[in-house]
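1st attempt posting a full record on here, be nice pls
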Amino acid sequence: MAIFGQIQRNELGTKYTHYGWFGICPVYLGDISGEAPVMAERNWVPGWWLSVSEWIFGKCILLRSIVDADYEPMWPIAIGGEIRCSVQP
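the predicted structure (as tokens):
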């Protein structure tokens, strides 16, 4: 998605307020205080890279859950910082 259907400038700072990583994929994040943050891969990163990252860490969580029944799964989301851009109306 991000190579051809890039995130629009007016969405940066409004819909997507932060940048960071989801596992091995660089992403834009929004609604980080909610239960499920809005996430999209950063511009110029192929859309399938987010799926690969999700698959890798999904398998890690599955294996850990099999070994440790008390394990509470968490996804590897790291917030790098807030997006600050000056969009001219």
